[in-house]
């Protein structure tokens, strides 16, 4: 729990070690166009709501029928939980449905795995299109950050890479054999099978076009949630949609680093890319600090709302029974 906080804090300290926070406060109070900021937050809320609706659609083939509101509120809570312990959000939203709708944790987690696979395909497609359209800037970013494709390619031709790979496979196989000798293996097998049913639930979704629509709209909202914030400040309003797309992709991959809401790595990626488009280091730092802070605050508010709404619904159910 403390390691992600330490890692995020360390990266933030390194990025903002010589930063003018007084100027950031001045921009926040007098240089931010709040109408654009509120509009961007609307798209942030809509993306979470649509993710909840899409999740219900994937859960339905399993023979369960949670309410849309429970699914949405579980998503709200999951994003807030990620601020406390990164990557625990997907587990927490399955736990929420287990508690409030008595839905198998393993099955619901399987549907989450399916969602993540679909989202990974989406970001890969977006990344490919972005790289092709912004290749010069991408290459400049790799040079600035010291990333070399030759060193990455050398990794796959190294003997040690395959030694470590086969050793890992061997350890996993031995672990599997040891599990089979334990009495609780059958219980684990049942859980895995339930999870697999959840993974395969996408095949039985009734309205695939609606699922695709939800998926495209979710990612469009994610992008607009970020892009519209460019118009909140005079020093970023001139940046085009392709620049925003590149920073969006870079920020998405930066969030993979297990820190609260990507704090630190996200700032580094966005600031570095923004500077490639001619924005000063100070202005880029202000943008990242204010935008990330406000969007994180939104996640906290939605998490509190989701938790309170779920508690209220649960109390009403107990009163009825």
Q: What are the SSEs and their pairings?
A:
Blueprint (H helix, E strand, L loop, with lengths): L1 H14 L5 H10 L3 H26 L8 H17 L4 H13 L3 H29 L1 H11 L3 H9 L1 H22 L4 H15 L8 H20 L13 H14 L10 H12 L4 H40 L1
Describe the structure.
- The protein has one domain.
- It is mainly alpha-helical.
- The chain is globular and about 55 Å long.
- It starts with a helix and ends with a helix.
- About 2% of the residues have low confidence.
- The chain contains 14 helices and no strands.
Structural class: mainly alpha
Main sheet record: none
Integer-rounded radius of gyration: 22 Å
- Domain module count: 1
Give the SSE order as H and E letters: HHHHHHHHHHHHHH
Number of helices: 14
First CA to last CA: what distance? 38 Å
The total strand number stands at 0
- How much strand? under 5%
Shape: globular
Helix content class? over 70%
What is the subunit organization of this protein?
single chain
């Amino acid at each position: 729990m403390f390691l992600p906080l330490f890692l995020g804090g360390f990266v933030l300290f390194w990025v903002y070690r010589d930063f003018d926070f007084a100027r950031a406060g001045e921009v926040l109070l007098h240089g931010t166009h709040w109408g654009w900021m509120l509009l961007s937050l609307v798209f942030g809320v809509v993306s979470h709501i649509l993710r909840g609706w899409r999740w219900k659609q994937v859960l339905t083939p399993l023979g369960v029928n949670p309410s849309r509101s429970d699914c949405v509120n579980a998503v709200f809570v999951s994003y807030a939980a990620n601020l406390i312990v990164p990557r625990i959000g997907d587990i927490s939203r399955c736990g929420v449905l287990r508690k409030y709708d008595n839905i198998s944790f393993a099955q619901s987690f399987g549907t989450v795995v399916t969602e993540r696979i679909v989202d990974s395909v989406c970001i890969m497609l977006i990344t490919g299109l972005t790289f092709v359209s912004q290749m010069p800037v991408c290459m400049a970013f790799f040079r600035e950050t010291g990333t070399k494709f030759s060193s990455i390619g050398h990794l796959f031709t190294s003997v040690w890479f395959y030694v470590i790979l086969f050793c890992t496979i061997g350890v996993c196989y031995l672990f599997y054999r040891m599990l089979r000798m334990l009495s609780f293996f059958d219980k684990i097998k049942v859980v895995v099978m339930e999870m697999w049913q959840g993974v395969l639930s996408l095949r039985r979704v009734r309205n695939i076009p609606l699922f695709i629509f939800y998926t495209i709209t979710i990612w469009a909202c994610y992008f607009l949630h970020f892009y519209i914030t460019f118009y909140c400040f005079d020093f970023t309003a001139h940046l085009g949609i392709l620049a925003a797309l590149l920073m969006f992709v870079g920020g998405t991959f930066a969030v993979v680093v297990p820190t609260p809401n990507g704090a630190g790595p996200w700032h580094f990626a966005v600031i570095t890319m923004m500077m490639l488009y001619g924005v000063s280091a100070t202005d880029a730092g202000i943008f990242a600090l204010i935008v990330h802070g406000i969007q994180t605050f939104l996640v906290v508010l939605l998490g509190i709302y989701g938790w309170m709404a779920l508690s209220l619904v649960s109390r009403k159910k107990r009163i009825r029974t």
